[in-house]
Amino acid sequence: MARQAPDAGGLLLRLHTGATLVFLYAPIVVLVVFSFTSDSFGVRWTGFTLQWYERLFRDERLIGATLNTLLVATISTVIATVIGTMLAFAMERYRFRGRTGLEALLYVPIVIPEIVMALALLGFFALAFGLIDAWFGVRPVMGLATVIIAHVAFTISFVVVVVRTSLKSFDLRLEEAAADLGADPWQTFRHITLPLILPGIIGGALLGFTLSLDDFIITFFTTGPGTSLLPVEVYGQVKRAITPKINALSTLMLVASITLVFLSQFVQRRGRTA
Length: 274
Description:
The protein is mainly α. The chain has one domain (60-273): MetI-like fold, CATH 1.10.3720.10. The protein has eleven helices and no strands. The N and C termini lie far apart (48 Å).
C-alpha cells in the first residue's frame, strides 16, 4: 500500500491536470478549427476553406479598426515604457517621502477589477472635459486620444513591475567600476545600465503592447462615436451575428497575443541568463 499510494496520487494529479487543460484550452481549439469551416454559421464542420480569412482581409471597416488599434497600442506602449522605466528607477534606487504610497498606487491598476478602472477613467474624462469647457469654452470629445491616455494609465504598472525585476538583479558594482574609470552618470547609464536592463524594458513594453492590443472594457468605456477599434468592433459584430469571419479574426488576434507573450518571456529569460 505504501508503494502504491504515490502512484495513485500521481495518476490523480495527471488526470486533474489534463482535465484543467482541456477545460481551459478546448474552447480555443474549437474557435481556431471552426475558423476554417465552410459552414456559413460556423457551428458545423462542413469542409476546409480559407474564404473567411479572405473576406476578413477585404473588410475595410475591420482593417481600419485594426490600424487604429495598432496605433493606440504603439503610442501608449512607448509612453508607458518611458514613464514606467523612470518610475521603476525611482522606486528601486531612491528613498523619498511618499514612496510607500506611490508603490501602493502603482499596483492599483493591477489588482482592481478592470470595470472599476474603466469607470474611474470615464469619470475622470467627464470631469476634465467639463472643466476645460468651463474655463476655455472648448468641449473635447472621446476618441483615440482618450483611449491612448487610458491605456497608458493601466499599462504603466505592468511596465514598472517588469523593469523593477531587472533592476533587483542588477550588480551595482558595475556602475561603481564605470565611475572609478571616469565615466559620468549619463555615460554609465548609456553604456552599462541601459544595455543590461534593456531585456526587462523590452519585456515590459511587449507586455504593455499585448494588454493594450487585447483590452476591451477600458477601450469600450473611453472611446467615442466614430472611433473604430478592433475589440469594440468585434463585440459589435458578434452582437449582430456570429460568422466564421469573427472566428478567423479571433484566431489572428490569439496568434498575435501568444507571439508577443512568448517573445516577452524569451527576452526576459535571456536577460536573466546574460
